[in-house]
Write a structure and sequence with these properties.
Elements lengths: L1 E3 L4 E5 L9 H8 L5 H9 L4 E2 L2 E2 L11 E5 L9 H6 L12 E5 L3 E6 L18 H8 L3 E2 L39 E2 L3 E2 L8 E7 L2 H13 L3 E9 L6 E4 L3 E13 L2 E8 L3 H7 L14 E5 L12 E9 L2 E8 L6 H8 L16 E2 L16 E3 L4 E9 L6 E5 L4 H13 L6
Parallel strand pairs: 11-21
Antiparallel strand pairs: 1-2, 2-5, 3-4, 3-5, 6-7, 7-11, 8-9, 10-11, 12-18, 12-21, 13-17, 14-15, 14-16, 17-18, 19-20, 21-22
Helix pairs in contact: 1-2
């Protein structure tokens, strides 16, 4: 029988029927909905005590022994039992994905950098994607055909929401449901660039998906990013409203030396504009399957209207840490607007510097040594820091924050140590 011990924990006595059980198996008998894997997780994290002492789970229990464990009746954000029961989110290479929030309707994870959301994103075809991880954790559910939600009229994907302000060809690939008896176990509500880390919002049922995508259409979702850019910005706050036009890398056939050969180039008239600007480092041509944005002049009707707020947080010699609040959701919007302001991301092969940073770039004393060659940044220094949305079932406002990953913090530490204006 369970008895409240505190707001965070509960106590229960071992029954005679459970005498001789391992402690983890006895806990599963007390909490009927708990499986052995989740029980082992609780013990491994030191969240269970046997007679007042932290237990490993392998102890044999006796009648009258007392088990103290996390309160299973707390809210989803505080319920350690439910978190332990949740499916593991681990890539085939053993990389663990951090859950920032989860309940029966919504999942928010901290997306690692360099893992694409879905196969084919930005022209990459690797299989180690968030889509693959989530399919294993939340497989499609078998339900009667009559109970399936209506299929979308567009050619949009089933598991992936398509933002209202993206072109049709930029939709994520869907999963065909020819049998009509499977409902996806999750839906991507929005997307992040492959090399961007931070908050990624996922719906766990169709009703939550519809409500959350409506929030994106109505632009009531709150998003904040942290970015490290090239140059010490001269402004404290600026709003960029330059429209963006996109070009896409395609394959063309040209007659060359008596034979037809395939070449890669942009697919729209704006490719000529991009070629003129290629003397600037941040205007490299897109590769096959990739999409690239070009910021047009204010008021131009040729591109998609965009708006991003930028706020300076810290300045260093040659770099700045800024906060970005995109008020529209165009592809590469933050990156394109930063490049147009003359402050591209410190590392961005598409719109800025293409070579990775090494330790010797900041600490000359290490020189051309093994330590000096150590790479300290080789991905976009862009992190989806905060996310605010209205819960689709309760109507409560939820605010989530994803701590910056280690490489982002290490790069910021090096800037503070070696590029502060006080250190010359």
């Amino acid at each position: 029988m369970k008895t409240p011990h505190s707001n965070a924990t509960t106590k229960a006595q071992v029954l005679p029927a459970h005498v001789g059980f391992r402690a983890d198996r006895a806990l599963c008998a007390i909490i009927e909905s708990l499986n052995r894997r989740a029980a082992k997780t609780l013990f491994h994290e030191g969240l269970v005590r046997l007679n007042g002492t932290v237990a490993s789970g392998s102890e044999r229990v006796k009648a009258g022994d007392s088990l103290e464990f996390p309160n299973p009746d707390l809210s989803p954000t505080e319920n350690l039992i439910e978190k332990a029961k949740a499916p593991r989110l681990t890539t085939p290479h053993g990389r663990h994905l951090v859950r920032l929030y989860e309940d029966n309707d919504v999942l928010v994870i901290s997306k690692p950098a360099e893992i694409p959301v879905y196969r084919g994103q930005d022209g990459f075809s690797r299989r180690d994607t968030l889509e693959d991880v989530l399919v294993r954790a939340y497989p499609p559910k078998k339900i009667p055909a009559y109970a399936l939600p209506p299929k979308p009229k567009s050619k949009g994907p089933i598991r992936h929401a398509k933002r209202e302000d993206e072109e049709d060809e930029d939709a994520a690939p869907g999963v065909d449901n020819a049998a009509g008896t499977l409902q996806p176990g999750f839906y991507f509500v929005h997307r992040l660039d492959m090399e961007t880390s931070g908050c990624l919002l996922i719906a766990k049922n169709h009703e939550a998906y519809e409500a959350l995508t409506r929030e994106f259409r109505e632009r009531t979702i709150h998003k904040e990013y942290l970015a490290i850019v090239a140059g010490a910005v001269s402004w404290d706050e600026v709003v960029s409203t330059r429209p963006i036009k996109y070009v896409r890398g395609v394959t063309e056939k040209k007659y060359d030396e008596g034979d037809w050969r395939e070449t890669k180039r942009g697919s729209t008239p704006f490719y000529s504009l991009m070629r003129k600007q290629r003397t600037e480092e941040h205007h490299a041509a897109p590769k096959l399957g990739q999409k690239k944005g070009i910021a047009l002049e204010e008021g131009s009707e040729e591109g998609k209207p965009c708006e991003t707020l930028f706020i300076a947080l810290e300045r260093y010699r040659g770099y700045s840490m800024i906060r970005c609040e995109p008020r529209t959701g165009r592809t590469h919007q933050i990156r394109v607007h930063l490049a147009a302001l003359g402050h591209p991301l410190a590392y961005d092969p598409f719109y800025g510097k293409k070579s990775p940073y090494r330790l010797r770039d900041f600490e000359p004393s290490v020189g051309p040594s093994e330590r000096g060659d150590e790479v300290v940044l080789n991905r976009l220094p862009l992190h989806a820091w905060k996310l605010g949305f209205t819960h689709p079932r309760t109507g409560k406002k939820i605010f989530i924050e994803a701590p910056p990953p280690r490489d982002f913090k290490e790069f910021a530490r090096l800037l503070k140590k070696f590029r502060s204006f006080g250190n010359r």
